[in-house]
Amino acid sequence: MRKAPAERHFINRELSWLSFNERVLQEAQVARTPLIERVRFLGIFSNNLDEFYRVRVANLQRVLMVDKKAKTTLGFAYDETLSQVVTRIEGLRRQYDKTFHEVIAALERENIRFVREDELDDDDAEFVSAYFRRAVRPELVPIMLGRKVKMPQLIDGDGYLAVRLTFEEDKEKLAVIHIPRHLDRFLTLPERVGAQRVMFLEDVIRHALPKIFRLFEAASVEAYALKATRDADLDMDDDVARSMMNRVERGLKKRKQGEYVRLIHDRDMPEDMLAGLLKKMKVPSAASVVAGDRYHNRRDLMGFPDFGRADLVYPAQPPITHPWLRNAPSVMRAIEEGDVLVHCPYHKFVHVVDFLREAAIDPHVTTIQINLYRVAKNSQVINALVNAARNGKRVEVIVELAARFDEKHNLKVANMLQEAGAIVRIGIPNLKVHCKIILVTRRQKGKVRRFGHVGTGNFHERNAGIYEDLSLFTANPKITGELAKLFDFFENSFERKVYRNLFVSPFSTRRRFTKLIDDEIARAEAGKEAWMDLKLNNIVDVGMIEKLYAASQAGVKVRMVVRGICALRPGVPGLSENIEVRSIVGRFLEHSRFMRFCNGGKPLTYLSSADWMTRNLDRRVEVTAPVLDADIANDLRVHFERMWDDNTHARVIQPDGTNAWVTSEDVAPLVQAQQDLYLELKGRSD
């Protein structure tokens, strides 16, 4: 059958994302991953899939609600896409369940085992009961269902136990118990002769069911896991035409927000009980009702205890002090001497905090300007800004309230900053502010000196320990002067600014990158050396993909490291034979974005907050900065080469979007880019 143009030119973005999550699952499948880290990768896979349902599957269902024949901006039919997604997820779930049980068996061989409530001896039962009375029982509110009590709306992503009480006279009652999210999902039992044992929290509750419902004197009490995923009603701009978005928004107003997208139930739940619950919950026919295992919410496996087994987790890699900042009396003075690149999580994120702390107390600093997309709870960044405002600095903060799933927290942060005296601006109308920038202005002896930060990651301390990101500090006026223009734009968004060095979305990013690619095409057509190295999280935008295809056809060599979604088809003869794409999933989440262009033998290097997605290029405020320091540009060259040479965690993205492990004719030595980069940076710091 002849393929449609979309299928010839692009990989379906939803299927590409599922291929990315398969790479996560593969890390749990390979024996070289430390065993407890394999457990945690299973948790990451589950967490990713939850979000995929909340946003992307919900997005597909919303569009089909108003137009059964709709197509994505890449040209794929929504109905076919949803069908393919369901089929693909079913296959991944089978892989996942098989892997889960293999990992559990491997844990048992290491004397770490899960214990169910029906496997407890008397001593264990007493321990579990005491824990239940002390910590769990006060948090439980069983809801008895009946004619006068409706089924509660299940909280998105939370776990529940559906309980059936059976009586001798063939009568029954149903109840629902919410599994408290703030309690530890795992209860570690007392160690037995070198064996570590652990229980799921829901099994602790199952053990106590007869006591919880003893008032009813039931002949039997049985419980089955339930979990709902609800429509997040957010971020419809990834792959939806604007006219379609308007139609969907009108359709959303006609129905209840946050409908069920997926319901997972214990496959052992009796059919009549499941049917009764679905009726009470009013689950729409479009939702996916999935028969799962005994335990849901396996995202909590990300927090699985390590039992002190250093041999079963990644070796410790404490973050490194940047050598330029180790003995520097002042962060700003170090930046004056030359640009500084902080590479998290290898370098300490506290360098960013120290920059703000110093500015907060420096008597010559007059203004601190920053934009916030996500920040940690109890954020040191926020504490530094509050301290600066209380010290009389002019603190201007752009807070993006529409950061997915962080809206409430960002509103709290905005209020806290305002109370401290900071000037808070809530984004820009119709544009998400997604860049990662700071500008500190210092006045001394009549001279004004600016210090800037342009980064790829959010100012989030916890994430900085697991997300790989870049923070460029500079006092170069070519950069800091344009950062000042951008903060002026935030204050007066009706004024259009001109940026000669920075690429700023939605104004110039697409145009400037297109020009760089066109320059490489011209050189290739003239028979000169032409290449590009691109590191991105996602590439989905049609225009940029088509431009890369044109470069490939002109003979430009394109190497890409893409962590997540890649809608580009690499290695297709006549279309993209000069494009190679690799992806690395490892200990850290590859989150930095940077690009290198041959430029006639004088390479140009850029780091960016923007992926090559339509929303990042056209509907968000993003910043791409040139790397003007030759040593830092060379560091990024070496970084890319390490990623490209990885033969441990890297996959080659195939033309159909599937994953193939990178193999080497000589498997020794193994190249692990993340570990090797850490050791190199540590060697520089020692």
Number of strands: 27
CATH architecture of one domain: 2-Layer Sandwich
Cα Rg: 27 Å
- First and last CA, distance: 61 Å
Kindly report the average pLDDT value.
Answer: 91
Helix/strand structural class: alpha/beta
Can you tell me the CATH topology of one domain? Endonuclease, Chain A
CATH class of one domain: Alpha Beta
Query: Count of helices?
Result: 19
Looking at the structure, what is the overall shape?
globular
Describe the largest sheet.
10 strands, mixed
CATH 4th-level superfamily of one domain: Endonuclease Chain A
Helical content class: 25-40%
Beta fraction: 15-25%
Query: Which segments are poorly predicted (pLDDT under 50) over 5 or more consecutive residues?
Result: 241-245, 247-256
Write a concise synopsis of the structure shown.
38% of the residues lie in helices and 22% in strands. The chain is α/β, with parallel strands linked by helices.
What would you note in describing this structure?
The chain has 686 residues and is of the alpha/beta class. Among the domains are: 323-491, 2-Layer Sandwich (Endonuclease, Chain A); 503-685, Endonuclease, Chain A (2-Layer Sandwich). Helix content is 38%, strand content 22%. It has 19 helices and 27 strands. The strands form four sheets. Strands 14, 18, 19, 20, 21, 23, 24, 25, 26 and 27 form a ten-stranded mixed sheet that branches. Strands 10, 11, 12, 13, 15, 16, 17 and 22 form an eight-stranded mixed sheet that branches. Helix 12 links the parallel strand 11 and strand 12. Helix 2 (13-29) runs antiparallel to helix 3 (35-66) and helix 5 crosses helix 6. The longest helix has 32 residues, at 35-66. It is globular, with a radius of gyration of 27 Å. Mean pLDDT is 91; it is low at 241-245 and 247-256.
